[in-house]
Every structure is written in structure tokens, then in C-alpha cells.
Task: inverse folding
């Protein structure tokens, strides 16, 4: 199709639809799809979710809708007769269905020389691991933002840093993986609790963020509170002074490991912290 000046115009891109289908809560397939889709432009992508699938009637209804939408089905169904039925129905209706974890399970089965249990949602069974995560989440909430410093000695990890450097989100994310995490704010006008210095200092991670990122996050926080964006809290000069002060504190505590979380997703920052902690790396450097 050509315009007035003979320039070929491309037709607008059609919206692509992806169906996520699972027997359980859909947590696993949702995480996998988000991580995968992050590699693509998602402006013309629509994701529909169908979880708690119980029988062939559910699958028949979903595949009919998927065919109408010309969708791609990504599924995590471990019960054999439902999985096979879904694949058959998708093929019959001329749409693509991807078994997101089935191929991996099959390869594991061959490698481990074991038959898979094929129990839907088994990863969410109320076992010791589940209760450990719940305990860790409660711990993180109880010891957020410097509260109850007497409990710091029971923490697996302690995050310290200036206001809005991501301490709470990181604590929550790590707690969901079963780590007991406390976080303590640092500020030039505040004295850290004495308890912070009374145990293994290698548990402590100092978060640092560049000026631009910290100003942006603080401005957003001020906007949420209905305050002027040019308050001292988000003033670039004041923020830069705070960061320099914070770096000096970290240098005075060489056993603390410093983590620059500028422009890092929570998952990436958490992975860096756990890697440093578990491998007992030397304290981080500000250079």
C-alpha cells in the first residue's frame, strides 16, 4: 500500500495474544512468561491467563477461545491425560501449544532415572520449606525500616542504606525465598542502633544508588505524598551529599559488603546479594 508520495506504508501490526494455562495458581508459568516476554517489545502483545484447570471441559472452552483469538497457548499441565488432551485440541484447532516445563521434566526424568510424580502444584505443598518462607516473611515485616533492632542477631541478612534505595522491596523478595532479612535506614542525622555492630558483620549489605536514580525515586515518592518535588528530600545536591556520607560510613565498616543497585531489577540485586553471601566474597569496594 502506497501513500501520496509513493512511500510504501506498512499495515498496523496485529495484536498477538498469548494464553497462559495451568492447573495450579499459575505462579510458575507467569514468572517464566514475564521473564521471556521481557526480551521483546510487548506493545502489541496481550496475555490472557487461565489457571486452576480441572478437566477436559475447561481445556475445550479455552482452546476454542484461543482459536478465535489466533493465540499461542503456553501451558504448565502435569497431569498426563489433561496435557495430552490440550495438545490434541490445540492441533485440531490449528493453534500452537507450548509445554513450558514438560520438556524440562522429561529431560530430568531421563537424567535422574526416575519417573516424575505428576502431582499438580506439588511445589506449593505445605511442607517445611513453606513454613520456613512464611516465618521469613513475618520476620522481614517485623524488622522493616530499623524496627525491633534487638532481633537483628537472628537475621540471615541485613540491608542498610539511605532512604528509597530499595531496602524494603529487596527484603520482601529475599524473604519470599526463605531468608530472614532485616533492614536498617542510614541518614546523616540518625545514629544506627548499637545492635547493628554486635554480631557477624558479614551479614550486612550496604546498598548504594547513583544520584540520578535516587532523585527520581524520591521525586516519585514526594508526588505520592502530594508534596513539592523540589523539597530537600529530592534535591540533587542534598542527595549527592547523602550518598557521599553513606559511602564514608561503608568505608568505616569494611566487613560490610557494598552493593550498587542502580538500574538493577529486584531479582538481579537479590541474586547478587545471595551470591556474595553464599560464596563469602570479600567486602565490596566503592571503587
Result:
Amino acid at each position: 500500500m502506497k501513500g501520496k508520495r509513493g512511500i510504501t506504508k506498512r499495515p498496523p501490526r496485529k495484536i498477538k495474544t498469548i494464553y497462559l494455562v495451568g492447573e495450579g495458581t499459575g505462579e510458575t508459568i507467569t514468572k517464566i512468561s514475564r521473564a521471556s516476554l521481557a526480551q521483546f517489545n510487548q506493545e502489541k502483545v496481550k496475555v490472557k491467563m487461565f489457571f486452576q484447570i480441572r478437566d477436559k471441559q475447561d481445556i475445550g472452552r479455552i482452546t476454542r477461545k484461543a482459536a478465535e483469538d489466533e493465540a499461542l497457548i503456553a501451558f504448565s499441565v502435569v497431569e498426563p491425560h489433561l496435557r495430552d488432551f490440550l495438545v490434541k485440541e490445540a492441533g485440531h484447532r490449528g493453534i500452537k501449544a507450548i509445554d513450558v516445563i514438560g520438556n524440562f521434566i522429561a529431560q530430568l526424568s531421563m537424567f535422574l532415572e526416575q519417573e516424575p510424580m505428576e502431582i499438580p502444584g506439588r511445589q506449593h505443598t505445605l511442607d517445611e520449606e513453606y513454613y520456613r518462607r512464611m516465618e521469613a516473611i513475618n520476620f522481614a515485616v517485623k524488622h522493616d525500616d530499623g524496627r525491633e533492632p534487638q532481633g537483628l542477631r537472628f537475621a540471615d541478612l541485613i540491608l542498610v542504606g539511605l532512604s528509597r534505595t530499595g531496602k524494603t522491596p529487596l527484603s520482601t523478595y529475599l524473604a519470599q525465598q526463605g531468608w530472614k532479612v532485616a533492614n536498617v535506614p542510614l541518614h546523616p542525622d540518625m545514629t544506627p542502633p548499637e545492635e547493628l555492630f554486635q554480631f557477624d558483620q558479614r551479614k550486612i549489605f550496604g546498598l548504594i544508588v547513583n544520584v540520578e536514580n535516587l532523585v527520581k525515586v524520591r521525586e516519585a515518592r514526594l508526588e505520592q505524598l502530594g508534596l513539592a518535588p523540589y523539597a530537600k528530600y529530592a534535591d540533587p545536591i542534598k542527595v549527592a551529599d547523602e550518598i557521599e556520607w553513606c559511602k564514608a560510613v561503608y568505608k568505616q565498616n569494611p566487613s560490610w559488603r557494598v552493593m550498587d543497585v542502580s538500574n538493577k531489577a529486584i531479582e538481579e540485586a537479590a541474586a547478587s546479594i545471595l551470591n556474595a553471601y553464599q560464596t563469602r566474597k570479600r567486602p565490596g569496594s566503592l571503587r
